[in-house]
Amino acid sequence: MDTYVGLLEGYHSRDNILRTISYAAGFASGAFKGKFAKDLIIIANQVSSARTVNRLLDDVLMWRETSDWGSSEKDAVSRRLVILGNVAIQLYYPIEKVAWAADSDILSLKSGPWWDAGTAAWGIYLLLNILRIVRQLILIRSKIIRLLKQRKLESPERNGEKDAEFIAQLKELKSSRRKEYLSLVKNIADLTMCINWLPLKGFLWSGRLSVAKNAFFGTVSSLIGLYLSIADYHVRKTNTE
């Protein structure tokens, strides 16, 4: 219960909960027929709409989160990918605002092209993020190999201080690798949905996935996001105790 309440108190973790509910309802609708299936789709759409409205205030938040523009990245390739990804995601939010306003008849525009542009911006961001994660996995692998080689050369006491330091470093690298793998699967699942939503007939699987199949990938992505949020919450809680 404490974990659930803690997740609700955070913006991103709360959004992950709503995202999971939305896609899980859409995915479950494929297993039923009639009114219950329609009710599940209504739930999915309503929760998705709530998330869209909630994102209308995200511009400043995302600007703050991406304000370092990759300066914390020591690797030049990763830094460039972060910068390009930041540009794409910063474009997404104002585009989504226009699309939402057009859908709500606030602006006298066709919303379709704006939603498509937002989807394209999101897709570019996801692709760049996938490339960044792959790059990070390569770097982590190199660090692990280097650490193991150093361990063999030094051959410290098995119960000594050096050994404890080696174990701690290896554990941290493996933890980072596991998190990156989960993030990779999450981003690939999101990109799968994104391509399905693109208005590019004949391009890969664009427009070919059913609501339930598309929601399956959304559910996978959301569950991973929820797991990562829970893990981050426990880390923060441990650090503050």
UniProtKB/TrEMBL annotation:
GO terms for cellular component: peroxisomal membrane. It is found in: Peroxisome membrane. It comes from the Eukaryota. Keywords: Membrane, Peroxisome. One of its GO terms (biological process) is peroxisome fission. This is Peroxisomal membrane protein 11C. It comes from Paralvinella palmiformis.
